[in-house]
Write a structure and sequence with these properties.
This protein is mainly β. The chain has strands spanning 21-26, 29-34, 42-55, 62-67, 76-78, 81-86, 89-96, 119-122, 124-127, 130-143, 153-159, 166-170, 182-184, 188-194, 198-203, 217-227, 232-237, 249-253, 256-263, 282-285, 290-299, 316-319.
Length: 320
């Protein structure tokens, strides 16, 4: 007699395990041409792209991204100002996490209180044994206004892996005050250029109320030039409505005139004119601040015309 027994054999094959992994790329932030004399900020944006993969069991899980941004190669002068550099010359700017540009995009490891914004995504099953999530974050940048003494030229700040510690982990946290988990990095550059520029303003000349023009009548006005540092300029004054020589300009009332001159010096010996009178213009070099140049006016003795108001219009041209 024979007896037999059947062995039941079992083998459990687990689904392959895929480690959670995230990759990051960041577009360059280019501010283009910056008018440093306008007093207004110049804004632009860059984009951080995020791509994460996981395994079958990661589907539906929440992944938290904490993308720390350090100061960049240009450094940071304060909690509100990162810097781009042109040699040793700085240009202040900042990166923000909000479109209103009120929340600085910072890091958990730098010296200032601002932190990275928290960004969450949900892993989605792809079918098969993989899950994934993709997303993007907008980085808002502003070159700060009121930097008239900024040098002209190209400015840059580079963000290397040392400045871009992007933490990611499965987490229910809502802030990035103390990020943890795996770390990814990305590199990008921030750039801007400051072009040579000048602004000009004037103060009118008023010779006042006079009687008989039997002696010199003197008065002054001014031209104010504000030019970027190192920018050379020339200021010329045309001949007025009559297109006259610098010392023979005419203030008019109808067909009657009063002759006057404009000068570069207080002794009224150096006429101030334009290219039609060689050597009569005024040259300077900008330093980013307002440079006031006095215009010396004189009405010489002459036959007095009839009473009334006599005026002339002189065009001031600043060439740089």
């Amino acid at each position: 007699m024979f007896r037999s027994i059947v062995f039941l054999l079992a083998l459990l094959l687990p689904a392959p395990a895929f480690a959670q992994s995230c990759n990051f790329t960041v577009t360059n932030m280019n501010f283009g041409a910056v008018d440093s004399l306008s007093g207004n900020p110049v804004t632009t944006t860059a984009t951080m792209n995020i791509s994460c993969t996981g395994g079958l069991l990661d589907g539906g899980r929440r992944i938290l991204i904490c993308p720390n941004l350090g100061p960049g190669s240009g450094g940071a002068s304060s909690a509100t100002a990162r810097q781009m550099l042109n040699g040793i010359n700085p240009l202040n700017y900042q990166i923000y996490s909000d479109s209103g540009m009120s929340v600085v995009w910072g890091s958990s490891t730098w010296a200032y209180p601002s932190r990275a914004p928290a960004f969450a995504m949900t892993m989605t099953l792809l079918g098969g044994l993989l899950s994934a999530a993709t997303g993007s974050m907008t980085m808002y940048g502003a070159v700060l206004g009121s930097q008239p003494t900024a040098a002209t030229g190209a400015f840059t700040s580079n963000f290397s892996s040392a400045d871009t510690a992007f933490y990611y982990s499965y987490s229910s946290a809502t802030t990035c005050d103390s990020p943890s988990g795996s770390v990814g990095t990305a590199t990008f550059a921030v750039s801007a250029s400051v072009a040579a520029n000048c602004l000009v303003s004037v103060q009118n000349i008023n010779f006042g109320t006079q009687g008989v023009l039997s002696g010199n009548v003197d008065a002054t006005g001014s031209v104010t030039a504000t030019c970027t540092p190192g920018t050379t300029y020339t200021i010329s004054l045309n001949g007025g409505v009559a297109n006259a020589a610098p010392t023979a300009r005419k203030m008019s009332k109808g067909t009657e005139n009063v002759t006057y001159g404009l000068y570069k010096d207080s002794s009224r010996s150096q006429p101030w004119g334009d290219v039609n009178t060689p050597g009569s213009t005024v040259a300077g070099t900008g330093n980013g601040t307002a440079q006031l140049l006095t215009v010396y006016g004189r009405v010489p003795p002459q036959t007095t015309p009839s009473p009334g108001s006599y005026v002339d219009t002189v065009v001031v041209t600043l060439t740089y």
